[in-house]
Amino acid sequence: MKTMPELSTRQLRAFLALADQRNFTRAAQTCHLSQPAFSALIRALEDDLGARLFDRDTRSVQLTPEGRLFEGSARRLLEDMGGAIRDLADHVERRKGRVRVAALPSLAAGWLPGVFAEFMQKWPGITIDLSDALSDACLALVRGGQADFALAASGAGASEGNDLQSRTLCTDRFHLVCRADHPLAHEPRLTPRKIARWPFIQMARNSSVRQTLDAALHPVRLDAVFEVEHLATVTGLVEAGLGVSIVPGLTLFHFRRESLVTRPLPVAGLTRTVHLVQRREGSLSIAAQSLHDLIVERRGSLEVD
Fold first, then answer.
1. What's the CA gap between 100 and 174, in Å, rounded?
2. What's the gap between Cα 88 and its chain centre?
3. Of 190, 158, 159, residue with least CA distance to 174
4. Does the pLDDT value for residue 262 go beyond 90?
5. 64, 113, 167, 246, 295 from 148: Cα distances, Å
6. Backbone angles phi, psi at 164, to 5 degrees
7. For the residues 47-76, what does the mean pLDDT come to?
8. What b-and-e string marks burial along 59-68, b requiring 16 or more CB atoms within 10 Å of the CB?
9. Closest by alpha carbon to 139, among 149, 128, 127, 129?
10. Are strands 54-56 and 61-63 parallel, antiparallel or unpaired?
11. What is the per-residue burial (b if ≥16 Cβ within 10 Å, else e) of 273-297?
């Protein structure tokens, strides 16, 4: 089987210049080459392809049947290569691109939108795909290649695993949330045992909030009357007087209502660390790296009470 020739863009441009000009002198000028150098380039192309592409005489230059057959392919090859180079340049210059981010719902709803707005104002051609999910799901998306990086919490082992690497974004402290007329709203000294006397609105077992609470408050058992997955549900249940809850500082924007009170809960070990997580192997795209860097740069604006 004959080896596939390795054609250069220089050869293709020379061929198309001659096909258009039908004159060696004018085609050589178009390519900014001397006529002998240009003629040598055409001969080398014909040798590589094993076919004569032009009929030449003293008065004219014409494409052979093989030359006409090759012309369409040569134009498509150059156009495809030009398109690929332009597309890559758009990505390098951040005129185009896509970033896939997985994030805890508290960050996706609270802090990240402001960072996204700043990023998209600077680079409007880049699209951001956001998956708001619990930490375990966020990490699975990163591991599976469906997310470039994730903002996840330590309760789900965000910093564990040889396949992932992480950096700390912030440490999130926990707060009691209750109705303003609830006795705990004015309790001089909050403790887990005092909270455990009251009906409790608990988060789902696979959430980093629940995992952190269970570990930090053990052996105190909370009287869970509801177990829910969404903080909006916690807000409604607490506001209705059905129980109290303990939530991270990053989620407090959900509970800023006149009918509710939030209070810091000073319990040793009751914190969760939020990490910025990516795969250990492979680099981020230019677009993803740019958003990653902006998140790191803006982490000082994270409002953690």
1. 29
2. 18
3. 190
4. yes
5. 51, 17, 15, 31, 13
6. -120, 155
7. 89
8. eebebeeebe
9. 149
10. antiparallel
11. bbbbbbbeeeebbebbebbbebbee
pLDDT of residue 302: 80
Tracing tokens 């001659």 back to the chain, one arrives at: 18
SS3 2: coil
Strands 223-228 and 199-203: parallel
Question: What was the pLDDT predicted at 161?
Answer: 60
Residues 212-258 pLDDT 10s = 899 899 899 998 999 999 999 999 999 999 999 999 999 999 999 99
Contact indicator for 246, 186 with CB cutoff of 8 Å: no
Residue written as token pair 């909370």: 222
199 — alpha (psi -120 to 50), left (phi > 0) or beta?
A: beta
**Contact yes or no for 143/163 (Cβ under 8 A):** yes
**pTM given for the model:** 0.73
The token duo for 162 is: 């040889």
Q: Tokens 């494409």 — which residue?
A: 63
CA dihedral 276, 279, 283, 289 (to 10 degrees): -20
How many whole angstroms separate alpha carbon 150 and alpha carbon 215?
Answer: 23
C-beta of residue 277 within 8 angstroms of C-beta of residue 149: yes
List pLDDT tens digits, range 144-187.
999 999 999 864 444 456 789 999 999 889 999 999 999 999 99
Q: Rounded CA gap, 89 and 85, in Å?
A: 6
Smallest CA-to-CA distance from 257 within 225, 234, 274 is with 234
Which pair of tokens denotes residue 81?
A: 């290569």
| Cα gap 248→259, rounded to integer Å | 19
Tokens encoding 289: 């790296």
